[in-house]
Amino acid sequence: MTSLVIIPARMAATRLPDKPLADIAGLPMIVRVMKQAQKASNVRVVVAAGDQPIVDAIRAHGGEAVLTDPALPSGSDRIMAALRAVDPQGVHDIVINLQGDMPFVDPEVISRTVALLNDQPKADIATLVAAEHSPADRTNKDVVKAVLTTSGKALYFTRSTLFGDAPIWRHIGIYGYRRAALEAFTAAPPSPLETLEKLEQLRALEMDMNIYALVVEDAPLSVDNPADLDAAITYANTHGL
Fold first, then answer.
1. Which Gene Ontology CC terms are recorded (predicted)?
2. Which of 24, 35, 43, 65 could lock 58 by a disulfide, CB 3.0 to 4.6 Å apart?
3. Helical packing angle, 107-119 and 29-38, nearest 10°
4. Mean pLDDT of successive 10-residue segments in the chain (241 residues)?
């Protein structure tokens, strides 16, 4: 069955205004994300846009987009709104939440996220982790750390410092949901741990959902500020993208 990749995007970014439409070597960033996702195996790609200019940009490049309420509180809520709009019959059982600020995301990690849900029947949600870049990651509150069992099941996610000699896994914000899990997750209010850590995935853990993580070689380049955008433009030009 075809899986559904939904990319939430909205213009109201404080550190980089109008971020989805930021030009990266001739293409808007959100279009680059869409095109990378379309290269994954057996997927349908939809952009869940909080603003009409994003819809216009996607459709101008032959993509599929749906306009969602800009007041929705989170990307997960935007994903759910788009899912109801584009698949009211419930054809798609697996939904991938792909961030709209990863212009060079490897399509293979999308395919592997789908495969994890297909191969691990206990998983309600799948996500990605990569090894720490350096020991400094352990104390960096902007680096979200995943605490995993040896089987890859997530026990916790935190911004706090982790101690010990075991590898530290850096969480990557790409999620795969079983449809029922996404529906239950978005219907629930923010949980205490989610509010404390400001990490949405903790709501799922407090709901006793099973999150399994896939280890990938490295995190994709994420564009959050003007310096990241400059790095993305340099990368695109250097690699002829």
1. cytosol
2. 65
3. 50
4. 93 87 97 98 96 97 96 91 96 96 96 96 97 87 93 96 84 96 97 96 98 93 93 96 93
Q: Which residues pair with 126 in a beta bridge?
A: 176, 212
Query: Could you tell me which of 73, 75, 68, 76 has the C-alpha nearest to residue 207?
Result: 76
Task: Give the three-class secondary structure for 172.
Answer: strand
* Entry pTM: 0.94
**What is the rounded distance in angstroms from the CA atom of residue 25 to the CA atom of residue 43?**
26
The torsion defined by the Cα of 219, 192, 73 and 21, in degrees rounded to 10, comes to -20
Cα–Cα distance for residue pair 8/30, rounded to 1 Å:
9
Read off φ and ψ for residue 218, nearest 5 degrees.
-160, 160
- CA distances to 39, 57, 88, 109 from 61, in Å: 15, 7, 25, 23
Residue whose pair of structure tokens reads 């996702």 in the numeric block: 37
